Amino acid sequence: METVTSPNILRIRQGRIDLSFHQVVGEVFAYVLSDPRLFLSSLPPSPDTISSLPLVDLSVSSAPHADAFAALQKGETDILVGWFDGSHGTYLEPFQKDVIVLGDPSKNISALPDDDDVAAAAAFSSPPVYSPYCIWGVPSYVPEALVPDVRSLANIAIAARFKKEEGTEKHVLQGIAPGAGISRFSREMLHKYGLNEAGWEFRNGSQEDCFSAFEKAVEKEEWIVIPLWHPQYLHAHHSIRALKEPQGLLRPVDHARLVLRKDFLKQFSPQQRSAILGVLQRVTLGNSAVTEMDSYVHVDKLDYRSAARKWIRAHQAQVDSWFENGHVDIVQRATQLDQYLLEDEAAITAKQHAYAIPARAPAAAGAYSPFSTSTTAPQIIHTSFQLPFGPDGKLAYVGPILPNDASASKTSRKTITEDEGLAAARLCALNLLAQLRDAASGDLARVQLLRLEGYVATADVDGHFVNVPRILNGASLLIRHALGAQRGAHSRTALTLSTNPLDVPTMIGAVAELRW
């Protein structure tokens, strides 16, 4: 049996601004950063490429604007999604020398002089991920002849036509968080255009406050002004006219880009760094794609990850082009951890099984069901323990694990190495994901993992094997990788035995919640 070597684990901490359109774009980049093809160009084209690919441990955090940039400044995150010069320039200025704005060399100060790869990345120019811009908008039924621009709102007679807050004479411009560019610009506009005197007031709030105020007014065909931006889902469902703004206080069209800490880039080998940056620089979405994903969140009620994956599935050729390199065919599609993107499972080889969820979940090894699902809400899935069955339906690993520091002469049993045990745990995890997929009627996006239970068989006759958590980390990281940081988070039991059923080295079961 061929040994599958233990993968390198690369930890990446992604930060996001906590607004829905930043979140869905962040999920697209989370997909890219978690895709094994990210590192392909750093490896020689050979049959061993698959087993040499690292496994990314990606964590995600989100926060309001100022806090998200503060986390990046402190080194609590490595990458921030995303940065706009016009809206976010002041947040980046205090530590601009410590980061790279990917694709915009004009914003990169003193790239590391001792690192040619980082310096080259700082000097490289590429298209933006998308091109956001701010507006003050009105429903299209507000006559342009009467309200052509922001200055019109200072006319008391015109202002009187607009919705007033109940119990007051105020015309409320319902905004979002105070740190957002549109919020800062709007407060400035009230002063510069003298709108306070006409009864206008800007008010901070949540996204829901802003969007629902607009939609409720539209239902009644009331006149309303909304401080808004592109890309944003309301534009896909309502006809919104941007008011002209002659003073330019809303700033020009901006460019959305990733910001990466330089010390984060230095942890990678030059080959890995070149591969990562080469892929990330090719990721372009455009405003329409972001609007579409934002609509999936607010209208279709999908979570951020599911919204991004729905868009990815519909635009697979575009996504594949981001990974373009000389030997992508080695793992084309078969290296995807998300089963939605597996198109030719039958072609997956034994070397590729470490990265592919089986097209068909393994059958039970005895007189029992592979999983059961409760009939009451919330629906809970209990899986049976999954064994390291390979794509051919046969056990890929048999025998207990011999610790690296133990002598094989102390046991007469057939044993496997710790690295093989780690690979066996990952194979159990893939089979477990296949069972969860089947329990969720083919849709892993419905699964919230709650708990893993793992048993590791060891040939350590002295009973001092301490690496059980490391072995089961192979399963935990892979499942978190596949389901995402939030839905893949779980508690875990890790136990050791002298023998498992069918003499397998690892077996893993799960408890999960089935959503919607």
From TrEMBL:
Domain Endoribonuclease L-PSP/chorismate mutase-like: from-to ranges: 362-513
Record's protein name: Periplasmic binding protein-like II
Record organism: Tilletiaria anomala (strain ATCC 24038 / CBS 436.72 / UBC 951)
Ranges of residues in domain ABC-type glycine betaine transport system substrate-binding: 64-313
Molecular-function annotations in GO: transmembrane transporter activity
Cellular component terms (Gene Ontology): ATP-binding cassette (ABC) transporter complex
InterPro entries with a match to the protein in the record: ABC_Gly_betaine_transp_sub-bd (IPR007210), Endoribo_LPSP/chorism_mut-like (IPR013813), RutC-like_sf (IPR035959)
Signal sequence extent: none
Taxonomic path: Eukaryota, Fungi, Dikarya, Basidiomycota, Ustilaginomycotina
